[in-house]
Write a structure and sequence with these properties.
The complex is a heterodimer. Chain A is of the alpha/beta class. Chain A is built from twelve helices and 39 strands. Chain A has five domains: 102 residues, no CATH class; 165 residues, 3-Layer(aba) Sandwich (Rossmann fold); 106 residues, Immunoglobulins (Immunoglobulin-like, Sandwich); 176 residues, 3-Layer(aba) Sandwich (Rossmann fold); 58 residues. In chain A, α1 runs antiparallel to α4, α4 packs antiparallel against α12 and α5 packs antiparallel against α6. The chains are: A alpha/beta, B alpha/beta.
Chain lengths: 647, 301
């Protein structure tokens, strides 16, 4: 690769202008006439050998040389030459900009944020890379393409101005994959990453450096331009609550244990206080002092009588680089009984459910109090077969999902459980050995386990001819399919059956948030059951609002939560729910920085560069200046030719 | 001292004060080349001056007026008294009036110097003739030989009316003068000597004609130190030929070398013929030239 190149070599045809310039010069060359007494001496001077030296021949047409220098400088400038730099070519340059939570950190008290420094550097990169084409990609929890490939500085600058930090963990892999996708349709030799190096899952190398491994093949050269970091921080990385086991559904006050995990800076000692607020009232305050790299869990005990909103805040004693991780939110649900639907025909299940005191089973004799949405549904019908039955957790007995009808069928026969997933939540502690099953699920010819996974199902138990138990997890819903009917098996007569029901109740309790709740992290709000087919407005921190509509199942999902703060969900102006989101990410709070990035091919390991990388430097401004200076010299030389005429 | 036009002045070329001082000066030739015409330059025995030279025996036919009768009375033999000859010296003044002399007051200064030389010669009882040569092919303007104070007016009138113009080179001018000049003595050649031809031939002609060469070069300040810059097309004032010179300021050093070579050439040509050479600037003060430089160089005394 040569060290220079031209962006517009087609303008080289302008070199033909040299010919008319030379012709016009000699045609129009008009020297001032100066009459002297005699040419005798001047003839002898001109005939002197020294006058005819090569240098004098050059000087003889100095004006022509100056004009040629100006013309050639302008022509070469029009061809837009550039010096190749380390940042790659001047053709297409994607710039990945880290906009994760750590980029809002301040490294020195009163200084600029990392994002502000990144913007300054990117502005320089844009100036240096132009007129090459640049594409800006923001890398937060995902990757967003801010601009197409363009050499329009205004577009790039405007996109850069609108870029803000999102209080989410960074996802470098998504950014690299987007650049990878761009490389399939554009010629990309180098991708520049501007980041503080705070990526998830950093690992230490033998040399004491931190490395970020990304499972991406890089078809281009990755230039990692790392911002200098030196921040001290203390942040909340986990905020959970667990209902005390002694509590019953009938108690008016529900006792909770609240856990707040605080992570300190990996290189500095930090201290401060952690405040816990319940519904706006301070209910706890604990001092905390952390050694370098230490984390500590604080426990608070409190009681609630209904829905209660908690907020944990850190008040640091000294300098705290990242403020967004100093606050976290938690909503404690109201204590209630689990609402379980169990088909009337499933007597064995209804019988097993009777032992749980905080479970209300439907259908019951009192038909008037039947809810629309259940926490758990134990039924013989699939969701598609009975869409009116809404439940977060569904246990389908003796039915095959409609979308698996081509993969598995049921026939009469005698089957045994060959193997099952003993660590799954549903089947843990359930012994399925020696259970006889009258219905035998049979998988189709050439159907592999992979086909079930591709359809979104996880096989929990396998018989001799096919799967017996399947699980399907979708946002806000968990569905378990027993492809055989338990009434035609020996399972209800085994000890494992009530254990299976207990596991289902536990899964349901966790899904309903009645046993343990965790703080809502940023990125995406947890799915929430609301009214069906209803439009809701979500007001995010920063006065931004978005509108979402629930489907026939009443599930509100996919609500982005890019910032720390309270998200208000309202319907027709009236607030129906309020959710607080915090960073809650140990990696972001640690502000640790990667020194290396290792893609899938380890040989392409990329080192961080804190110094400014070289980019293609356009030379046309320099040439334009040279032409201007030569023009001034020519003007001076031309004016200097005035002759002092004597006598 | 510039040309004056005052009515009280004897001539417009020289002021009266300078004329007074010039009348006391005489030309100093290296060798006294005189003519048989009686003049003021002693030229050997047998003359008619009052200066005694020798005795010789009387031979029949001698003028008895020159017999020394006192010797005859003592020795009773007649002896003739011999006296010094006093012959006249011709001073030919040649002024170059070609176009090259038009510049920078050169011709004016040449006329003044010629008049001054003529005055000193006339006051030395020499026969003075003057020639002004301008265009080649045309006869020179000639002032016929004359001597004594009576010729002074004629000398002044001649030079006052002299005009400059033409293309005659100095060698041609010398030949034109010699076609008309008769008599030995000295030739005062006033020119810029800017000629491509060698001066050996004209100086040989002068020398063989019995004329001692006094070469006086008059150059303008621009010729002595040309302060020209840039690219120029130089035009010869005499023949209109041109030469293009680029970056002329870079050639000043070489020009000076060639000018000095020319002056050395003229000086060498003069001295090998017992002549003299002197170069002056047309802007040099006339008083300083006449009463300082020329006397120090031994031209005048």
């Amino acid at each position: 690769m040569s060290w220079t190149g031209f962006l517009s070599p087609s303008w080289a045809w302008l070199f033909l202008l040299v010919i008319p310039l030379v012709i016009v010069y000699f045609l129009k060359l008009k020297r001032p006439r100066f009459e002297i007494p005699s040419l005798v001496l001047w003839h002898s001077v001109i005939n002197d050998q020294r006058v005819n030296s090569p240098f004098q021949r050059f000087r003889k047409h100095l004006l022509l040389w100056l004009q040629l220098a100006i013309l050639l400088s302008l022509i070469v400038a029009a061809m837009q030459p550039f010096l190749r730099g380390g940042a790659g070519s001047s053709d297409n340059l994607p710039i990945l900009v880290d906009c994760s939570a750590s980029m809002s950190a301040i490294d020195t008290r009163g200084g600029a944020t990392r994002m502000e420094r990144a913007k300054e550097r990117i502005t320089e990169l844009i100036d240096e890379a132009l007129p090459g084409r640049i594409c800006l990609i923001a890398v937060g929890a995902g990757a967003r393409q801010l601009t197409e490939f363009t050499n329009n500085k205004r577009i790039l600058t405007e996109a850069l101005d609108t870029l803000t930090v999102r209080d989410v963990p960074g996802n470098l892999v998504d950014g690299l994959r987007m650049a990878q996708a761009l490389a399939r349709r554009e010629t990309i030799s180098t991708v520049t990453l501007v980041s503080d190096g705070n990526f998830p899952d950093l690992q230490d190398t033998a040399g004491g450096q931190k490395i970020a491994r990304v499972d991406v093949e890089l078809p281009f050269k990755l230039q990692f331009e790392k911002l200098e970091t030196d921040a001290v921080n203390m942040g909340i990385t986990a905020f959970n609550a667990r209902r005390q086991s002694a509590a019953g559904a009938a108690d008016s006050l529900t006792p909770w244990d609240v856990f707040v995990r605080i992570n300190g800076s990996p290189d500095d000692v930090t201290s401060g206080e952690v405040l816990l607020e319940q519904d706006g009232q301070e209910v706890g305050r604990q001092p905390i002092a952390l050694e370098a790299g230490q984390s500590k869990r604080l426990v608070y005990s409190l009681q609630t009588s209904g829905v209660s909103r908690l907020a944990a805040r850190i008040v640091s004693d000294g300098f705290d680089g990242l403020s967004s991780d100093n606050t976290a939110y938690l909503e404690l649900p109201v204590s209630r009984s689990l609402l379980v639907w169990c088909d009337a025909d499933l007597q064995s299940y209804r019988h097993a459910l009777q032992v749980f005191p905080d479970v209300t089973v439907y259908p019951s004799d009192d038909a008037s109090g039947q809810p629309d949405v259940f926490d758990l549904a134990i039924t013989e019908t699939t969701r598609k077969a009975n869409p009116n039955l809404q439940a977060s957790v569904r246990l389908v007995i003796g039915a095959i999902p409609e979308d698996l009808a081509e993969l598995v069928t049921t026939r009469s026969g005698n089957s045994l459980v060959v193997d099952w997933n003993r660590s799954s939540l549903l089947l843990q502690h359930v012994n399925l050995d020696s259970i006889e099953i009258a219905d035998e699920p049979v998988r189709g010819d050439d159907v592999l386990d992979q086909h079930f996974r591709e359809a979104g199902y996880e096989i929990l138990a396998t018989g001799r001819s096919g799967p017996l138990v399947l699980a399907r997890h979708t946002p806000g819903r968990q569905t378990f399919y027993l492809l055989f009917h338990t009434d035609r098996s020996t399972l209800p007569y085994r000890v494992g059956f009530p254990v299976l029901i207990k596991n289902a109740i536990d899964i349901t309790r966790h899904a309903a948030g009645l046993a343990e709740v965790g703080g809502q992290p940023t990125r995406v709000l947890a799915p929430r059951m609301l009214d069906r087919n209803t439009t809701y407005t979500v007001s995010a921190p920063g006065s931004t609002t978005q509108t979402f509509r629930t489907g026939p199942d009443g599930l509100l999902s996919g609500v982005p939560a890019p910032r720390v703060g309270i998200y208000r969900i309202s319907e027709d102006g009236s607030e129906v729910a309020r959710v607080g989101a915090g960073v809650l990410d140990a990696g972001e709070s640690s502000l640790a920085s990667a020194d290396l990035i290792e893609p899938r091919d380890e040989e392409l390991r990329v080192s961080a560069s804190t110094t400014q990388i070289d980019t293609d430097r356009p030379l046309w401004p320099t040439l334009a200046w040279i032409a201007f200076i030569v023009l001034l010299v020519e003007w001076w030389y031309f004016q200097k030719k005035t002759v002092r005429v004597s006598g | 001292m510039n040309t004056t036009s005052s009515t009280n002045q004897l001539t417009t070329l020289l002021d009266n004060q300078a004329l007074t001082r010039l009348e006391r000066l005489r030309l100093q030739p290296n060798r006294r080349k005189t003519n048989r015409t009686q003049g003021e330059h002693a030229s050997g025995k047998g003359g008619s001056s009052t200066e005694f030279a020798d005795y010789r025996n009387y031979v029949p036919g001698d003028d008895v007026r020159f017999v020394d009768w006192n010797i005859f009375a003592r020795l009773n033999r007649p002896y003739m008294k011999l006296y010094q000859y006093e012959e006249v010296m011709h001073v030919a003044i040649l002024v170059d009036a070609s176009n090259s002399m038009k510049f920078e007051n050169k011709f004016e200064r040449a006329r003044q110097l010629a008049a001054a030389m003529g005055v000193t010669a006339l006051m030395g009882v020499e026969r003075v003739s003057a020639y002004v040569v301008g265009a080649s092919g045309e006869p020179p303007r000639v002032m016929p030989p004359g001597s004594g104070r009576a010729s002074m007016r004629r000398l002044f009138d001649f030079f006052e009316r002299a005009e400059c113009g033409g293309d005659a080179p100095i060698d041609g001018a010398v030949e034109a003068m010699l076609r008309r000049h008769r008599g030995k003595g000295m030739a005062i050649v006033i020119s810029d000597f800017l000629t491509p031809a060698s001066l050996a031939r004209p100086f040989n002609l002068l020398y063989s004609a019995g004329l001692e060469i006094f070469a006086l070069q008059v150059l303008g300040p621009t010729e002595i130190d040309p302060e020209l810059t840039g690219d120029l097309r130089l035009v010869d004032s005499e023949n209109g030929t041109t030469v293009d010179v680029s970056s002329i300021d870079e050639l000043h050093g070489i020009y000076h070398e060639h000018r000095e070579q020319l002056q050395e050439h003229v000086r060498r040509q003069s001295r090998t013929r017992n002549g003299r050479f002197l170069s002056i600037s047309s802007e040099a003060p006339l008083d300083w030239v006449l009463f300082d430089l020329l006397q120090r160089q031994g031209w005048l005394k």
